[in-house]
């Protein structure tokens, strides 16, 4: 009996590990591993500093090079260790664009769904887990755009901790987190 229970548990854990084994790498930038110093800002890109992450931020609306229908803006936030901490993809709603359901379906196929509150009459929110972080999609019916944010492990917590600090200094790096 114990062997049967142990065997069933191993099968369930193996299936869960396969589902969660996807690494988030939006636009080819693996979260927490890709180095930001290798990114080059285009002539129409805006480069700044990410206070919460402690490194540079790149924002571009020249998104044609990515060949993603409906993509309107890309923002990349880097941490103090020169690693990609957050990639935000803003999509336009409308003709020729990827729909909320298209994006949701793609993410459902690659990542483990953690939570969903899909829009009916109100705002929508969905979250997925990846090996190296998490993803979230935010949608408001009265907004002409929706957002997909790819967070490196620990980055979302750091962002909210920074937002709560009155002096607005970057949150300290946390060691030992994957």
Question: How would you describe this structure to a colleague?
Answer:
- It is a single chain.
- The chain has 178 residues and is of the alpha+beta class.
- The two termini are 35 Å apart.
- The chain contains three helices and eight strands.
- It has an eight-stranded antiparallel beta sheet with strand order 1-2-3-4-8-7-6-5, covered by helices on one side.
- Helices cover 22% and strands 33% of the residues.
- Mean pLDDT is 80; it is low at 4-20 and 174-178.
- It has helices at 2-20, 100-110, 155-164; strands at 46-50, 54-60, 71-79, 84-92, 112-117, 124-130, 133-139, 145-152.
- A hairpin with a 6-residue loop joins strand 5 (112-117) and strand 6 (124-130).
In short:
With 178 residues, this protein is an alpha+beta fold. It has helices at 2-20, 100-110, 155-164, and strands spanning 46-50, 54-60, 71-79, 84-92, 112-117, 124-130, 133-139, 145-152. It has an eight-stranded antiparallel β-sheet with strand order 1-2-3-4-8-7-6-5, with helices on one face.
């Amino acid at each position: 009996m114990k062997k049967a229970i142990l065997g069933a548990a191993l099968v369930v854990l193996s299936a869960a590990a396969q589902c969660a084994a996807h690494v988030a790498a939006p636009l080819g930038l693996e979260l927490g591993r890709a180095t930001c110093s290798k990114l080059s800002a285009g002539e129409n890109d805006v480069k700044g500093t990410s206070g919460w992450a402690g490194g540079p931020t790149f924002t571009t609306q020249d998104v044609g090079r990515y060949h993603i229908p409906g993509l309107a803006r890309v923002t990349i936030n880097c941490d103090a260790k020169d690693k990609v901490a957050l990639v935000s993809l803003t999509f336009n709603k409308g003709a020729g664009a990827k729909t909320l359901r298209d994006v949701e379906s793609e993410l459902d196929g690659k990542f483990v769904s953690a939570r969903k509150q899909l829009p009916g009459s109100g705002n929508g929110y969905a979250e997925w887990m990846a090996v190296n972080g998490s993803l979230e999609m935010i949608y408001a019916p009265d907004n002409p755009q929706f957002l997909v944010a790819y967070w490196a492990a620990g980055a979302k917590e750091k962002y909210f901790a920074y937002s709560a600090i009155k002096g607005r200094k970057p949150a300290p790096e946390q060691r030992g987190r994957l």
